[in-house]
Amino acid sequence: MNANATGPVLPVLGSRKPSHRERVAEALRAALIAGELRPGEVYSAPGLAARFGVSATPVREAMLDLAKEGLVDTVPNKGFRVTAVSDRQLDEYTHIRSLIEIPTTAGLATTADAVALEALRPVAEEIVTAAAAGDLIAYVKADLRFHLGLLALAGNAHLVEVVRDLRRRSRLYGLTALVEQGRLRASAEEHLEILDALLARDEEAVRGVLTRHLGHVRGLWAAPGQ
């Protein structure tokens, strides 16, 4: 993410006005996924509050939510330590995601309403814009909305929540390097490819693009220098 004096922009959730706690929690999850908050590091609530431009109270509350999800551990009198995720865990998460996301999304080529699919185009374009700007938190947020939005069209709410949890536990430490190399935008544009293939009712094309796309999780997006 391109850092600035005011810190990252907090996400907006749903149609109602979110609380600071909800906005901070979503921003922190995105920062964890993108690797902006590093495993083993201890972060204080006041320090994070200054970064996100809010008071320390909603940050503490948000971090306690993340602790319940197993994403951070509390460190008495100091703050919160980001939980480390092993390569084996990441491989397992990605494997499960591919088993769910690829066939489910590909199946939408024959079942999803064209209007509902087209409604996701602004989100796909938002991903490309975030990639071009180097805004990793916005990139991760929009990516989550896009893929969960597609899966929701299959009509299985439990499946969506399973994938949401797996995506929250993923880590994409290579994104910063891709931004610096100017290579993240090409990956971002795959979201538009997926959407176009779905609208063309080409199930095999959807499967191919999504297989390539998810392959980046343990490839291009996995670690710096790749």
Distance between the termini: 18 Å
**Order of secondary-structure elements:** HEHHEEHHHHHHHHH
Global shape: elongated
* Total number of helices: 12
Mean pLDDT: 86
Q: pLDDT below 50 for ≥5 consecutive residues: which ranges?
A: 1-15
Characterize the largest beta sheet: strand count, sense, and whether it forms a barrel.
3 strands, antiparallel
The Cα radius of gyration reads: 17 Å
Strand order of the largest sheet: 1-3-2
Oligomerization category of the chains in this entry:
single chain
Proportion in helices = 55-70%
β-strand number:
3
What is the SS-derived class?
A: mainly alpha
Classify the beta-strand content into a percent band: under 5%
Protein name: GntR family transcriptional regulator
Keywords: DNA-binding, Transcription, Transcription regulation
Organism: Streptomyces thinghirensis
Name the descriptors:
three-stranded antiparallel β-sheet, mainly alpha, single chain, 3 strands, 226 residues
Structural description of this entry:
The chain is mainly α. Helices cover about 65% and strands about 5% of the residues. It is built from twelve helices and three strands. It has a three-stranded antiparallel sheet with strand order 1-3-2. A hairpin with a 3-residue loop joins β2 and β3. It is elongated, with a radius of gyration of 17 Å. The chain starts with 19 loop residues before the first helix and ends in an 11-residue tail after the last helix. The N terminus is likely disordered. Keywords: DNA-binding, Transcription, Transcription regulation. This is GntR family transcriptional regulator. InterPro entries: GntR_C (IPR011711), TF_FadR/GntR_C (IPR008920), Tscrpt_reg_HTH_GntR (IPR000524), WH-like_DNA-bd_sf (IPR036388), WH_DNA-bd_sf (IPR036390).
